[in-house]
Amino acid sequence: MRVLPSKELVLLLSLIVFSSSFSTCLASATSGNGSGPSSSFSDVVSQISRQGQATWSRSTNAVQQIMSNRGQATLTRSIPALSLYNGEKDLTRKTLEVSSVKRKRRRQLQIPKEQLKGGGFYYGVSTKTLTKASTPSTAAKKPKLSDSMFEALEELKYLRLEMETMRKEMQTLRQKMIEDGDLEENPEEMKAKQLAMNRKRQKKCEKLAEEIEEWAQQILRETEDDGWKQVQCSKMMKKSVNPTQRTTAYLKWMKDSRGDMAVKTDETEYPCIKCFSTIDAPLEDVCTYLSQESAAPEYNDVVVKYNDIEEISPNAKICWSQSPQILFLKPREFITFCHHRWKRDGTEVIVNQAWDHPDYPAIDDENTAGKSCRALALRGANFLSRDPDDPEKTNVILIAHANPGGNVPQWAARTAVNALTPIEPFKLFHKINEAVQKNQKQVRQRLEQAEMVSTVPPGRSPRPAGIAQMGYACFWPNGGGVDEGRPRKQKSPEQNTDGAIGSDNAGPTENENTSDATESEDDGSSRMPAVSLDDSS
To answer: Rounded to the nearest 10 degrees, how much is the dihedral formed by the CA atoms of 240, 270, 324, 299?
Structure first.
C-alpha cells in the first residue's frame, strides 16, 4: 500500500471536510431560518464566507489532530527528518520537526550520439533533456610497479616449481633407464656426482666434529658441583701406576650425549669419564708415538682388533674395533667416527662419536653365536697440548662417554665401571709415559721421516696423528689434519680432488692447557684441576 506524503494527506482530508461543511452552509443559507423570505444573494455569499472560514479552520485543526495522533509512524518513515520533542512536563503531544529534505536530481536520459543524428520521435521527451552518452575511454590504465613486480615474482615461483618437478622426473627416468640397461652412465658424470656427494658428506662431518668439540669444552668447564665425582686410584696399583699423582680421573653418569643423533626415548644414564694427566716428554714426541699403529698394544689393553671402514677426508674416517671380555661383559664391537685437527699453538684435538654403517649392521643381543654385541662410544675427545710451565712435558685430557650395549642392567653396568675406573685410566697414562720415554729416539726419527715424505694439501699438517682407547683405534700415519697455523692456498675446483674443507674451519683458536693435578693429601681428597680455555692468537 502506497503511503501519501504529509502535505497531500492534509490537503485531501481538509477538502473532504470542507466540502461537507460547505454543502451544509449552502443549504442553511438558501433556506434561511425557514420562516422568512429568501435572503438576497449578497447575504447568502457573506454567510457562506463566514461559515466557510469557520468550517475550514475546524477541518484543518481536526486533520492536524488526526495526523498527530494516528499518522506519526507513517510520517516518520516517509520523511527523512529528525524528531525533536518538547521537554515540558505538561505537554504530552509530540511535535515533528523536519530538519532537512534531500531532493534527488532529475536524471537526464543518455542517448547515443549516432541515434541523435537520425532524428525521430522520443514520445514527448524534449531534446534538451537528451544528452550525449559518454563513451568509455579505450586507453588502458598503466599498471603500478608494485603490482607488476608481484606478478613477476609469482610467475617465477611457478616456473621454478615446474622446472624442479621436471628435473626430478628426468632424473628418475634416467636412473630407471640405467638400471634397465637401456642407457650407459657417463664415467665423468659419475665421478662428478660422487665428488659432490663426498664434499657434502665432508662438510657434514666437519660440522659434527665442531659440535663434539664444543660439547667437550662444556664438559671441561663442569666441576664437582655439576655431579662429577673423583675416582681414586686403586690402592693396590697406586704405587706402581700413579705414585706422583700425575693422573686424576672423574666420573659422571649421563644420558646419551650425541645431541640430535641421540635416542630420544632412551632415559638410561651411561658412564662418562674425564682424565687429566702429564707425560714427561715433549708434545711432538707424544703425538708421534700415539700415532703409530704398532704401538697401540703397548699401552691399550681394551682394544684387541681394529680396522678402518671408510675414509671421509684426510683427517676423518669411520673405524671398527673390538674389545675383549671384561669381567662378565662379553666382547663388544664399536663403529666410531673419528676426526683430528691441529690448533695454531700445536695442540692436537681428536674427537669421536658412535656411528651407524650399512655394511656393519648392529647386533644388540650379546648371546648371538659367533657375533659380538654392539657397544657405543657415544662421544669422546682427546686434547694433547704443551705444558705451559715446562715445554718438555705434555698435558693430556681424555673424555669418554660409552654405552656398554647388550641391554646390560644398570646395576651390572655400575658394578663393572666401579671395578675398572680405579685401574684402567691410571694404567693407560702410566704406560704411555713409560713407552714414550723408552722409544724417544725412534719416535723423533719417525717424525722427521713423516715430514719429509708426506705430501698434503695446503692448510694441512704432515705430522702423524692418532690414538687407541676404549671404543676406537684411529691412526693417520701420513698426517693430513687441518692445521690452523699453516697458510692456505686457493686451489681450483679441478685441483681440489681431496674435498678438503679446511678453509671452513678458519677462525679464532682455543688453547686448552691443563695445570698439574693438585697433589692429594693422605686422606685421598683432591680438587679437580683447573682448565684454561682462553683463546690464543
So the answer is: -40
The dihedral formed by the CA atoms of 301, 302, 305 and 308, expressed in degrees to the nearest 10: -120
* CA-wise closest residue to 288 among 526, 405, 153, 451: 451
CB atoms inside a 10 Å sphere around CB 436: 23
Chain CA centroid to CA 488, Å: 34
Distance CA 96, CA 136 (A): 47
- Count of beta carbons in the 10 Å neighbourhood of residue 339: 25
Model confidence at 510, pLDDT cuts 50, 70, 90, reads very low
484 DSSP 8-state letter: T
Count how many residues are written for the chain: 537
User: CB–CB of 248/526 below 8 Å?
Assistant: yes
C-alpha cell at 471: 671404543
Which residues, in sequence order, are bridge partners of residue 334?
A: 321
Could you count the other beta carbons within 10 Å of the beta carbon of residue 242? 22
Closest CA to 437 of 470, 474, 488, 392: 392
Residue 37 to residue 63: CA distance in whole angstroms: 37
Q: What is the pLDDT of residues 213-233, one digit of tens each?
A: 999 999 999 999 999 999 999
Residue 458 cell numbers, joined:
695446503
Q: DSSP alpha helices (H): ranges in 187-342?
A: 187-221, 238-241, 283-290, 296-299
- Residue 381's nearest CA partner among 467, 505, 291 is 467
Confidence of residue 501 (pLDDT cuts 50, 70, 90): very low
Terminal CA-CA length for the chain: 99
Q: Which residues contact 74 (CB under 8 A, 6 or more apart)?
A: 3
Q: What is the DSSP letter of 231?
A: E
With contact defined as beta carbons under 8 Å apart, do 339 and 350 qualify? yes
Q: Are 409 and 267 in contact (CB under 8 A)?
A: no
Strand-strand pairing, 332-342 and 481-483? parallel
Inter-residue contact 412 to 326 (CB < 8 Å): no
pLDDT bucket at 517, cuts 50 / 70 / 90: very low
3-class secondary structure, 306: strand
The answer to whether 303 and 473 have CB atoms below 8 angstroms apart is yes
CB 234 within 8 A of CB 402: no
Q: What are the distances in angstroms from CA 411 to CA 327, 347, 416?
A: 14, 38, 9
pTM of the predicted protein model = 0.59
* Residue 225, all three cell numbers: 658441583
Tens digits of per-residue pLDDT, 78-129?
444 444 444 444 444 444 444 455 555 555 555 555 555 555 555 555 555 5
String of b and e for 142-153 (b: at least 16 CB within 10 Å)?
eeeeeeeeeeee
CA distance 312 to 318: 7
User: In 3-state terms, what secondary structure has residue 87?
Assistant: coil
Is residue 501 a contact partner of residue 313, using CB atoms and an 8 Å limit?
yes
What are the residues whose beta carbons fall under 8 Å from the beta carbon of 351, sequence distance 6 or more? 209, 212, 213, 216, 338, 339, 340, 379, 380, 381, 382
- The pLDDT, as a whole number, for residue 434 is 93
> Where would I find the H helices in 104-186?
113-117, 145-180
